[in-house]
Structures are given as structure tokens and as C-alpha cells.
Amino acid sequence: MSNVILNEREFKGFRQMIFDQAGITMSNAKKPLISGRLAKRLAAKGLDSYGDYLNLIQQDAKERQTAVDLLTTNETYFFREPKHFEFLNQYVLPSLRGQGDVRFWSAACSSGEEAYTLSMVLADVLGHTRFEILASDISTRVLEAGRQALYPIEDATNIPKPLKARYCLKGVGRQDGWFLIDRPLRERVIFDQINLNERLPDVGQFDVIFLRNVMIYFSVETKQAVMARLIPLLKPGGYFFISHSESLHGVTDQLQMVRPSIYRKRPD
Fold it and tell me: What is the residue extent of each domain of the chain?
């Protein structure tokens, strides 16, 4: 399969597919990425060209999802951008202590590291039973990894030692070299496939929404459409977190910037 070339027409077809499915805009520089990540699927399906595979995913929804899984970027790790979690601890969670049901949304959770980071921080401040985290992604592959809650031991490097001791179980035997998120935390995280570029399901409202390192792949129009869907699901006074490399300038005026990458919905 190494001799199969991705031609320009096929490349444009895959770019259109990933835009239609996930809202992701891929530049011309992504041609090698598309070619490389889909090559094994051509081999697995016994296809002679990328055009044949493009035809297949247009007809086969399951295989189309596999292609989306392969083409979406899922880099993540525990306590990524730690200042966000410091801000939660210092400013957000104290105001939620007296609230009955606290709900967070990790809206592009990848393989679950962000959602479980949030669960550790919330459990540490609020206790195990007073919060719920919705963890969603477009990729079924990474969602399944998140549900497993089993990670290589080196991935625990950024987890503060007290939280690691309290909420992470070191694997033994066949799971040596891995760690498992403690069951009470796993039970507070609900994984669900949600496409932010489509009409959203009825998931209720949230005190805090995290949507980090996602909108860098979106056009301005796609960002505006995604935010128009998400903001009504944020409670008045709720917080919205994006990555430090992103901005909502020119995207929405319905949120007030508290700090760069941290926004708040005006209280009623």
C-alpha cells in the first residue's frame, strides 16, 4: 500500500468530509497526515486507491466514524494548563460549595484525562457525591479509552502527589506499569459521543464548560456556530474555559473575559 498516492481530488474529498463531520478545517499541509493515517484502512479493506476508500466512507457510516477517529487530533494529558485548575480551586469552587448539584462539561474530552483531572479537583473540594462531569468527544475510539480509565504510569507525572495517592490505583500483575482512576471518581464522569457541529442533545445546563484546544481547528464561522450552541447550556454566572492559545475575540460577545482563556456568563 506504500505506493498508493493521495491525489488532489481525493485530498479535497477527505478535507470536505472532516469539515462536514467535525467542523475541522485542514490546510494543504495536512495532506501527508491524511495519507498516512488512512493508509492502513485501505490495506485492511483491500482497496487500491484513496478514492475507493472515500466512496466507501460516503456509504458506510461505521467506517466513516473510523476515518473521523483517525483524522482527529487527540493530544491531551492530566493537569494540562495547570493555571486553569488553580483558578477553579481559588475562585470557582468556593462559590459552588453550598450548591446541591454541580455540573461540569469537558466538551472535547479525548481519552478522558481532562475529565478525570476535573473529577480529582472537584472531589478534593466538594467530596465524591456532589458533582457530575459530562465528558464528550466526536471520536468513539478515545471515548472508549476514557471509559476504561486505565493509563500508563508515566501519564501520572503531572498529577499532584496527594491527589495521585488518593484517587489513582497502581496496577499490579497484568496491569503493572498502569494506573486506574478510583471507582468513586469514575462513577461521577459520564462519557458520551457528541458532535459540537450538530444540534446538541438535551444535556441540561452546566456551572463550568471546558472546550480547550479544539477551536484552533475551526474557522471563525464554525467557532461562532459552536459557541451559539454552547452558551445557552452555561448557567448564568457560569465559567467557560478555552486553551491559552485560543481567544473568543470576534466569536461571541455573550461572555465576559475574566482572564485570558477564562470567560464568564453574566449573572441574571
Answer: 8-71, 82-265
Task: Name the phi and psi angles at 243, rounded to 5.
Answer: -80, 165
**Which DSSP string corresponds to 211-249?**
--S-GGGS-HHHHHHHHHHHGGGEEEEEEEE--TT---T
Catalytic residue among 69, 137, 182, 207: 137
User: Is 37 annotated in the active site?
Assistant: yes
Question: Quick check: 47 and 54 in contact, CB under 8 A?
Answer: no
- List, in order, residues 6 or more apart from 249 with CB less than 8 Å away: none
Q: What is the DSSP letter of 267?
A: P
Distance, CA of 195 to CA of 246 (rounded, Å):
20
Report the DSSP pairing between strands 234-241 and 255-259.
unpaired
Beta bridge mates, 191: 135
Query: Model confidence over 124-166: pLDDT tens digits?
Result: 998 766 899 999 999 888 999 999 999 999 999 999 999 999 9
Q: Which CATH number fits domain 82-265: 3.40.50.150, 3.90.980.10, 3.40.50.2000, 1.10.4200.10?
A: 3.40.50.150
Residue 207 annotated to the active site: no
